[in-house]
Amino acid sequence: MTIYFATHNQNKVKEIAKLLPDGMELRSLDELNLTEEIPETADTIEGNSLMKTQYVYNKHGVACFGDDTGLEVEVLDGAPGVYSARYAGPQKNSQDNMDLLLSKLEGKASRKARFKTVITYISETGATHQFTGIANGIITETQSGQEGFGYDPIFQPDGFDTTFAEMSAEAKNRISHRAKAFEQLVNYLKQQ
User: Fold this and answer.
1) What is the pLDDT averaged over residues 20-28?
2) Do the Cβ atoms of 68 and 40 come closer than 8 Å?
3) Domain enclosing residue 75, as ranges
4) Strands 64-73, 112-122: pairing kind
5) Is 99 part of the annotated catalytic residue set?
6) Taking the complete model, does pTM exceed 0.70, yes or no?
7) Does residue 77 have a pLDDT over 80?
């Protein structure tokens, strides 16, 4: 079975491809020659996930899924949330985003946060399903680690003393928000 992932982010493609069971082939937007930026203008993570997936399905009519992820910090009322990628501006710079978040958390007693991923799947017949994965943790006071991407150097998942960026891809894939949502998608596809 071939399934298309509504993303140009090769980090996400590599992370998800490692989770696929035998017999499933993951392809990205590059393989559909879809080069334009897909709109992400919804005001929720669920909405952006649906918007991206519908865009690909409407253009190509293929089984596909799209995801959106946000980092939600409790003391900041869930910010940056749906705006996580562009928290510090439209240039989507991870270092600027982390710097801004760390500055907003200075002096705050609570550093509780969670990563939330929502995956929307649309089958070749147009049936739509959403799957949500959550990874709870805290925002560290300093950056640590070289692996991963985005906010990984400042997110320490519950039950661990390392950030996502200090974990191997395999270790992160066992506990990450994206892995949890994707596992639900894979289990759903296996039942079909």
Assistant:
1) 83
2) yes
3) 2-191
4) antiparallel
5) no
6) yes
7) yes
